[in-house]
Amino acid sequence: MPNEKKKEHAMHRVAAPLNPAGHARSWYTATATAFPAFSPLKGAVRADVCVIGAGYTGLSAALHLAEAGFKVVVLEAARVGSGASGRNGGQLHSGQRRGQDFLEKAVGREDAHKLWNLAEEGKALVRSLIARHDIPCDLREGLILADHKARYVPDSYDYARTLAVDYGYDALQPLTRDEIRALVGTSAYYGGLLDKGAGHLHPLNFALGLGSAAVAAGVEIHEGTRAIKVTDEAGVTITTDGGGSVVADFLLECGNGLMDGLDRRVDAHVMPICNYIAATEPLGDQAQEIIANGAAVADSRFVINYFRLSADGRLLFGGGESYRRGLRPDVADFVRPFMLRIFPQLGEARIDYAWGGVLAITMTRMPFVRRLSPHVLVSAGYSGQGVALAPLFGKILAEAVQGQLSRFDLLGRLPVPPFPGGTLLRTPLMMAGLSYYALRDRL
C-alpha cells in the first residue's frame, strides 16, 4: 500500500557533479547536466515497490508511482542513465518498433490501432515530461526515414498513405530522390519520408532529468547496487551484490539488456546486443550540408544507420552492431567505415568521441512486457525504439501496480516468443540470422 505521507530520502545523496564512473566516455557525458551521486544500498530496506534499473522505464515508473504516494526504491548497478538510456542515438520515433501492417496481422486491427495510439502518447509523454520538469535536453523536431534501395520507396509512400487514411496520422511527408538529397548530403538514398511528428534529443540529459524529477517526488535511488537474486514468495526480496536487500510488495524489472542473468524468464525472450556511435569534431558550415533541416535520420537497413547533428554542430553517427559479450575496444575505427559509406566527404573529419552501449532485442523486435508472477512485472527489449516507448511503458507498469491493467494487458498481447535453443543457443543462432540480414543490406 502507498504511504499516506511521502518520506524524505535525502540522507543517501552525495552532493557532486556528474561522475563519469559507470558512464561511457561520450559526447553525452561531456555535455551532461550536473547530477548528484547516490550511495550504494547498505543493509535492509522496505518499500512498496522496488525497481531494477535507473533508465527511462525504471525512472518513469518510479516517478509515476511516487507521485501516487508509493514508497519506491530504485536499484542501479552503475549510474543513473548509464545504460542504453544514456548512450543511444536520441531518436524519437513514431509508432512501435514494427509497422502497423505487422501489428494488424499479429494482434488484429483493433489492438493495432490501440498500439499506434499508445506510441503517439509515448511521444507526447516525452515532450510533457521535458516541459513539466524543465529538462534541458535539446529536443528538436523532425526525423527522416531514408530508403537505401529504390524498390523500398513505393512501399514507404504506401505506408504514409495508410497511416494518414487509417490512423489519422498526416505528419509524414514523402521525399523523392532529389528532395532527400537536398536535405541529406549523400547519394546513398533514393527517397523516403520526413516525419514531422518525430524528433531527437540529448538522451543522457533526458534520463538525468527524469532522475531528478523522481528524487524530487520522493524516490530513493541507490547507484553502484546490482541486484543478484530475486526471491519471489509472498512478497519479493531483492538481494544485492553489496549485501543489502529490499523487501517489497512489487518488483519492476526495468534493466533491459543489462539484466541478463538475473531472471531466466526474461533471458529466454530478451537478448543483449551492442551498438556503437561516433561523434565528429564540430563541422561548422559543413553541418548544414550534411543535414540541411536539422532532422534526425534513420535508414532502411536491417542494421540501421542512424545519425543527427548535435547542438554544437557535430555529426553523431550510429552504425554497426556486435553480438558478442562485451563492448568493442576500437569503436571509432569500427564506426568510421559505416559513416564514410554515407558521407565520404567526411574522410578528413576528426572523431572526437566514440562509444558503445548494450541494448536489448527480442525475436519479433517487440518489447517483452509481462507479469512474471503476482508480484513481478517486466518491460524490456525495445530493440532500438526505447526513447519514445520506454517512459510510457514505465508509466503503464506503474498503472499495473495500482490495479489498472487494460494497457498493461494490451502490451502483454504483443507476440514475443522465446529465442530458439534457450539462453545457451540464442546468441550463436541470432548471430547467424542477423549476419545474414546484414549481408542482405549490402546486396
From TrEMBL:
It comes from Xanthobacter flavus. SUPFAM superfamilies: FAD/NAD(P)-binding domain. Its EC number is 1.4.3.-. GO terms for molecular function: oxidoreductase activity. Keywords: Oxidoreductase. It is an enzyme of class 1 (oxidoreductase). It holds the Pfam family DAO. Gene3D superfamilies: D-Amino Acid Oxidase, subunit A, domain 2 (3.30.9.10), FAD/NAD(P)-binding domain (3.50.50.60). This is Gamma-glutamylputrescine oxidase. It comes from the Bacteria. InterPro entries: FAD-dep_OxRdtase (IPR006076), FAD/NAD-bd_sf (IPR036188). GO terms for cellular component: cytoplasm. Residues 48-399 form the FAD dependent oxidoreductase domain.
